[in-house]
Amino acid sequence: MIIRRIVFFISLMIGAAASQLPEFAQQYRQRLGGAIDEINRMLGDFDRDAASNGMDRPAGVGRLQKNNDPFVQSQGARVREAEARVSRLERQLQDFSQAGSFSRIGVLARDFDPGIARRAYQSFEPAVPLTLEGGTIAATGFAAAYALLKMLGALGRRVRRRSTRPGRVHVS
Known about the structure:
The protein has 172 residues and is mainly alpha-helical. It is built from seven helices and no strands. It has helices at 2-18, 21-52, 57-66, 70-98, 103-110, 114-122, 132-163.
């Protein structure tokens, strides 16, 4: 009887934890938008500096990368990295906006940015899942945990019964 209560309690805790996935995805999405805005601001600053010197972004980056100074060359590489990152993040944000409520978790799992995810987790504040999505995921987490724990318990009992059968030699 006590094992059933423990299984139920653990399943309940896993269900509650699973219910937080939609909220985490929401907070990640907000940080994603902020990161895109900040990278675009930095690229805009670079574009204005390049334009004030009669160049566009590709010409400005090319000039930095052709410079003999390794520090200046690295700045050109950073602009290229920022362009690639903002492009990837914008695609992910578009995927989030096109995804249905349950699909958003898949979008997060498929192509998350580790830095953004880490900062979202550091400031994550749990929320009560009052949405269909949160409630369904909580129930699914509970059911999966409950079924897994019940299977593990049955397997443990079966192994225990086999090892205590009469006629078996126990080696200590």
